[in-house]
Amino acid sequence: MSSTVGPTSTLAPGEAARETLDRAALERVWSTPPGFLGWLTSASHKSVALRYIVTAFGFFALGGVLAALMRLQLARPESRLIGPDLYNQIFTMHGSTMMFLFAVPVMEAFGIYLVPLMIGTRNVAFPRMNNFGYWIYLFGGLMLWTAFALDIGPDTGWFAYVPLSGPAYSPGKRVDIWAQLITFTEIAALVAAVELIVTTLKMRCPGMSLNRMPLFVWAMLVTAFMVIFAMPAIMVASTMLAMDRLVDTHFFNPAEGGDALLWQHLFWFFGHPEVYIIFIPATGFVSTIVSTFARRRIFGYPAMVLALIATGFLGFSLWVHHMFAVGLPQLGEAFFTAASMMIAIPSGIQVFCWLATLRGGRIVMRAPLLWALGFIALFVIGGLTGVMTAAVPLDLQLHDTYFVVAHFHYVLIGGALFPLLGAVLFWLPKMCGRMPDERLGRVSFWITFVGFNLTFFPMHLLGLGGMPRRVYTYARDAGLTTGNVVASAGAVVLTAGILVFLANVAWTLRRGAPAGDDPWGAETLEWATASPPPSYNFAYLPTVDGQAPLWSTQERPVVTGLRTDVREVLITDGVDATPDHRHRLDGASVWPFLTAVAATIGVVTALFTPWGVTIGSLLALVTLTGWFWPRGAPAHETVEQRP
Amino acid sequence: MSQRALDVSALPTIAYGPRASIWWGVLGLVAIEGSALAIVGVSYLYLRQNFVAWPPPGTPLPALGAATGDLVVLLASIVPMAIVDRLARAERRRPVAIGLGVMVLLGLASLALRALQFAGALGCRWDSHAYGSVVWTLLGMHAAHVLTSTLENALLMAVLVVGPVEHKDFVDAHVNAFYWYFIAAVWVPTYALVYLAPRFL
Fold this sequence. Notes:
The structure holds two protein chains of two kinds.
Chain A: E1 9-10, H1 15-30, H2 35-41, H3 45-74, H4 84-118, H5 127-149, H6 174-202, H7 215-246, H8 260-293, H9 301-314, H10 330-342, H11 344-359, H12 367-389, H13 392-398, H14 402-432, H15 438-464, H16 481-511, E2 558-560, E3 568-572, E4 579-584, H17 591-605, H18 611-628
Antiparallel strand pairs in A: 3-4
Chain B: E1 4-7, H1 21-48, H2 65-89, H3 93-121, H4 130-162, H5 167-200
Helix pairs in contact in B: 1-4, 1-5, 2-3, 2-5, 3-4, 4-5
C-alpha cells in the first residue's frame, strides 16, 4: 500500500509554529483526564504501565516480607516462631505473589510502557483492554492478600499439587482462593500479551521492518507468544481443580478414573514456559543496556533474534523435567533430559553475543550496566545448576531439596530481578525525567549482589546435605544450622541492598537532576522524545532506516498527515512496516473498570457457588454492552443516519 | 522536526482482514481459545488411559442425533456468515443487520441442540466419573464460545439497527465472522473426539 503514500515533500516555512500548534492539539486529544476519574478511566499506555509497575513492586515488597519471615524462622533450628500451618501459607503466598503478581506483570508492564515508544507509535493497539487488564490484575492480587490476612491464604505451594490440593485433603476455601487467583492473573497476562503482539506487528513506524526491530521488542514479542500458548494450560488446569472442589468433577480423583499426574503435566506445561516468560524480557533489558554502554550495536543481531525464538519453542519441550521423580517411562525422561540440555544452546549464544558486544565496544561503566553484568554472572551459575538437575539420576537425589530452591532463585533473581533493577535505573530518566544517583546505584548493586550470594549459595550445600523444601524447621543435630544461619544473615544484607535501591528511586523522583531526552546516548526511539514523554509520545511519528535510529547521522523524514483532532495512529504492514491505513483508537472510558468489577464479583462469588459464573457473565454482559455501544464518534466516521 | 515528511493523509481509515489490527486481536483470541480446547482434548485422551472401557461400563456411547444436528447447523451457518462478511465490506447496513439476525437464530439453534446433548445424549453427568467430567467440559467450553459469539452478533445487530453507525462497525461484523468460522470449524474435531472416537478407535 506504500504506493498510496504521497511523495516526500518539503514543508513550508513556519514549521516551528506549526509544530507548536500540532502539539497543543495532540495534547488536548491524548491527555488523560485529571483526578480520580482519569485514574479509573485512563487509556494511556504509559499511565497504565506505570500503575502496573508500581503495583507489581508493591506485591514484590509483600512477597519479600514473607521471604524475610521464612529466613527468620529458619535462622535457628527447631524454632517455634512460625507454626507449620502459617509457614505453609507463607511459602505458598511468597511463590504465588512473586510469580503471578510480580514477575510476569512487571515484565509485561515494561513492555506496555516501552514497546509503543520503541516502535514509534502513540499507544497500544487496544487501550481500553489494557486498562481492563490492569484492574483485573489488581483485584486478583487484592483478593489473594485479603484472604491471607483473614488466615485463609492458600497453603499447598505455588504449584498446588493434587491430591493435596483436592477436596479430600484441603477442605475449606484456601485452594479455591489460589485457583481463582490464577483466573485473574491469566486474564490480565493474556490481555497484555495480545496487546503487545498486535501493537508490535501492526503499529511499527514506517521503515521498521522486522529485521530492524529493537531486541527488547523482539523479546517481548516472543514472550507474548509464549504467554498465549502456555497460559491456557494453567487456565484449564485451575478450572478443573476448582470444578473438582466445587461441583464434584473427577479430573484428579483416581477413584473415578481421574489422574493426579494430569495436574502435574498441565501445570508444568505452563510452569516451565513461565520461567522463560519471565526470563526472555530480562534478556531484552540486558541486550539494550549492554549495547548502550558498550557504545556499539549488539553483536550478532540475527543470532540473538533466532536464539530468542528458539528459546520460545524449546521452552515448551522441557516441562517433564519437573516430574522426573514421579516414575515416567525412561525413554520419555531421556527425551526431556536432552531437550533440557539443548536449551542451554540458545542461552549460551546470547551470553556469548553479550560478551562479544562488550569486548568490541568502548565500555562506559554505569550502574545499569553493573546490574546487567551481575545478571550474566548469576545466570551462568543458575544455568549450570539447571543443566545438572536436567540429568535424571542427579535430579532424583536433589528433587524437592534446597538445591532446587538455590537453582531457581539464581535463575529468577539473578536472571530476571537483576536485569529488571538495571532496567529501572536505565529507563527511570525516561519515565520521570530525572537521573538516578550513580553512586547509590552502584552501592545498592554491590550490597544486593553480596547479599544474594550469601543467601542463596549456601542453599546448594543445604540441598546436597538433604534439607527438604517447604518444611517449617529442621532438627538441631541435622548439620544444617550453619548454612541456614549464613543464608538468613545474607537475607538481611540482601534486604538492605534492595532498600538502598528503593531509596535511590525515591530520591530520583524528588531530587534527581533533569535527564533531558537521551541521557545515556542510547540508540532506540524512546530516547527521541521528551522525558517523560508527552501523552502522544511523538509530535510526528518517526521513520527509520536501520536498527539504531538515534545513532544514525542521516536526517530521516517524519510522518505527517495524521489527524490531530482524534486519537489517530498509523497502522503498518506486519513485516515491512510500510504505511497501510490510519486508525482511530478508543479514548478513556469507565467501562473497562466496571467490567473488571463485574468479573471480580463473578469470580469471588464462584468461590462459594457455581452460580458465580452466571452472575459474573450477566453483569459483564451489561458492562460490555456499555463498553461497545457507540457514542460520540466524529462525524466523518459515521455512515448514513437511517437504516 | 525534519525538513522532509512522509505524508499519510491520503491513506484510508478502514481496512479489513490481516490489514486491520482488530483482526489480529481476534486471531490472538482464536489462538488462546484453540489452545485451551486442544488441552482439554489432550486431557480427554490422557484420562482415557485409565479406563478399560471407554465410555466406562454403565455409561452408553454418546448418542449421535443431536450432536450431528449441531454439526450440520454449525457448518451450514458458515454460509450466511460468509454472506454477512461480504455485505459488511460493502457497508450494506440493513442486509448486514438481517444477516446477523439469522446468525443469532442459528446460534440459538446450536445451543438448543447442545442442551439436548447435555440432557440426554451423553448418558452421564459431570460428576459420574472422569469420563463424564471431561466430555461435559469439552462440550460446555465450546457452547460457551457459541453463546459469546451469538451475543456479540446480537449486540452488533442492535448497534446497526439503532445507530449511529460507524464505518468500523462493519469491520466488527467482519471479525465476528472470522471468530464464528473458528467456532464452527473447531466443532468438527470436538465432535469427532467426543462422538466418533469412542465408536471407531
